[in-house]
Write a structure and sequence with these properties.
By secondary structure, this protein is α/β, with parallel strands linked by helices. It has 7 helices and 14 strands.
């Protein structure tokens, strides 16, 4: 399926198509790429993704003094909170924080337990003033969609304004679930993968993002 037809099928999915990101993604896919390179490249890619998903942030004009004269300049006037889904989302966090250095950061530790057949939350920490904020939610891979759906449900309990989910790769199955449960969430990704295998890994994918980030293969 072409990227154009993918966009038509998934109305709220924004597929970021840029040579720099495509090249970097190809490097991440290679099994020879070690953890150090994987972390560095992922951080670089995250900065570019932060640029793309923030194109329509609200701006406000204020008068300033340049070294030569007074002028009116525009500044971002919207509160943004960056939230990482642990542990793999931590690999994207530095890149987003570099682009939004004044933003506050939240962490959600959640995973799907195959024995309980349910998601398990083991850590949850958000800024106190998150209500009404725009959320950039980070997790490199969207596979079954269970953890991301649960994370968004928790965020909505705190009255956030809007959630924008950022990932590198997504499965058709995960996108369908996420869209059905949270149709208001905009999704930013680089590729919609072919499918998942019996263990829930994306194909062709890049393996387990957390293991590759932290060298715990």
């Amino acid at each position: 399926m072409s990227k154009h037809s993918q966009k038509e099928q998934y109305k709220n999915v924004n597929i970021i198509n840029h040579p720099l990101l495509t090249h970097s993604l190809s490097t991440l896919r290679k099994k020879e790429t070690n953890s150090s390179e994987f972390r560095r490249i992922l951080a670089e890619m995250s900065r570019l993704m932060a640029y793309e998903c923030s194109r329509d942030l609200s701006m406000k004009t204020y008068p300033i003094d340049t070294p030569l004269e007074k002028t009116d300049c525009s500044f971002i006037c919207e509160d943004v909170t960056i939230v990482s889904v642990m542990r793999a989302g931590m690999g994207m966090l530095d890149g987003f924080m570099q682009m939004f250095p004044l933003s506050k950061v939240g962490h959600i530790g959640i995973y799907r337990d195959k024995f309980l057949n349910n998601t398990v939350e083991y850590y949850f920490r958000l800024p106190d003033d998150i209500e009404g904020n725009k959320i950039f939610l980070l997790d490199p891979l969207l596979a079954t969609g269970a953890t991301v759906v649960a994370a968004i449900e928790r965020l909505k309990q705190y009255g956030v304004k809007e959630v924008r989910f950022n990932c590198l790769l997504a499965s058709p199955e995960g996108l369908e679930i996420l869209q059905n449960v949270h149709p208001d969430v905009q999704i930013y990704c680089l590729s919609i993968e072919r499918t998942m295998n019996e263990k829930g890994y994306l194909l062709p994918g890049l393996g387990d993002a957390g293991d590759r980030i932290y060298g715990t293969l």
